[in-house]
Structures are given as C-alpha cells and as structure tokens.
Amino acid sequence: xxxxxxxxxxxxxxxxxxxxxxxxxxxxxxxxxxxxxxxxxxxxxxxxxxxxxxxxxxxxxxxxxxxxxxxxxxxxxxxxxxxxxxxxxxxxxxxxxxxxxxxxxxxxxxxxxxxxxxxxxxxxxxxxxxxxxxxxxxxxxx
Length: 142
Known about the structure:
Blueprint: H1 3-18, E1 24-25, E2 34-42, E3 46-53, H2 55-66, H3 73-97, E4 103-104, E5 108-113, E6 122-128, E7 131-139
Antiparallel strand pairs: 1-6, 2-3, 2-4, 2-5, 3-7, 6-7
Helix pairs in contact: 1-3, 2-3
C-alpha cells in the first residue's frame, strides 16, 4: 500500500462513514472559493493533505459535528482543520496497519482559496449539502 492509496481510502471513508449522510464522489467541482486547511503527512515523501469546503458546506457539516445551527467563523476554521486532520489521521492508521509509517503535522488553516489545486496529485470531489467539497493531496517534488 502506498501513502497515496491510504489517503484516497481515508478521504472516501470520511465522506461515506464519518459524514454518514450521502456524500458521494462526483466529477463536479466546487463553484466558489473554499475554506482550506492542510496537514502534512511525512514519511519517505512529504504530502500536503488539504480539505477545501465552501462556507455553506461547512455550515452543514457544523450541524452534524457540532450540533450548531449558527457556527462562528472561528468554529468553521476549526472544523475545516479537523476535517483535514481526520483524513490524514485515518490515512496514517490505514497505512500503519499495512506496514507504512509516517507522521502528521497539526492542521493549519490556510484561508479561502480556489478549491482545486492544479498541482495536486489527488483531487477527490464529494457532493454534499447541494454543493461540493474537495480533499486534495500533493506530494512534495524533490
């Protein structure tokens, strides 16, 4: 198993199992700028794992995770960081079970950005809450 495979499995697990409400892989891409947070996954290579979600999607996720109808911007920043952390952490557990070890950094809020990283090695888009969120990962080039 490669780290890339573990990241894909972890992103799909987050969408299907953690959200548990019908998030599905889609070819559609987010239509607007997204709140973004990242976590580094460092093993034999360094990957940057990012979660990108438009504010309306994050608000719907806040209802699920925080039982919060009107989350503050601080709550949403923390939430997008936790999503990146959940995906990277799940990938670490999956990879570890298969003999691949790596470390992960704490999540970093990166602000609002384009939801599709053109240089990303992985861009997985998930339909959710009448919009799309993205999990991406980029391997640092040597």
